[in-house]
């Protein structure tokens, strides 16, 4: 294996360009190393067993032909890779034009599933993905006015479906085992600022708190309260890195009337203060 490495560049979409398919090599310019918050769907297709990806502050090892799936709002740090990487980036709403395609995107990007944010495909599946990616790349490289974006949308749908069909982990094909867990995650995303008690979510799902905790514990290995706390910490970490808000402002926006209580809560969850986390991440980005 070559020792040549590269850093994944920050991809931007412009008006009228809802998708990009990019093949990168070690000669690619304009690299970046600092974490960035996504505003689009992105698939990072690794071609070598080199480096790692950090997604929402959790690090995952790169593997040859592992496809990382990063959703809008997630924090992504691309570490050094091998010589060849493929990126597929598309804007929210470009593919999700009906219920079926929306469910497809949610399945691939693990928005409510119990699995890491990547898919390992079989060799048979890679044969199809290679062909579809080549067609996507060729079409996306045409002038914006000449590109057939309807064709691009169809090709992305095909690409995502083949990812699921040939995923090595059979659990992916089955999807969410209990739809109520997915519904709970959606409710937490919507209400975690103001609702931090299990009782609210149990009531919304017409369940008792005990029953909801049983369901969540069986599938996620956590209680409802732990899921709420995880969501609060995730958003706090995103703000600490991607904004200049004070810890007091972050605490208030997250529904904590007492910033000191928020700092104690944060330290209990993370093992360090919000200020220490912010400083550590800034230091890491400048190494």
TrEMBL record:
Coiled-coil annotated residue ranges, if any: none
Name this polypeptide is given: Helix-turn-helix domain-containing protein
PANTHER family in the cross-refs: ARAC-FAMILY TRANSCRIPTIONAL REGULATOR, TRANSCRIPTIONAL REGULATORY PROTEIN
Keywords, comma-separated and alphabetical: DNA-binding, Transcription, Transcription regulation
Classification via Pfam families: HTH_18
Cited SUPFAM superfamilies: Homeodomain-like, Regulatory protein AraC
InterPro entries: Homeodomain-like_sf, HTH-like, HTH_AraC, Tscrpt_reg_AraC-type_HTH
Species of provenance: Vibrio alfacsensis
Residue intervals of the HTH araC/xylS-type domain: 182-280
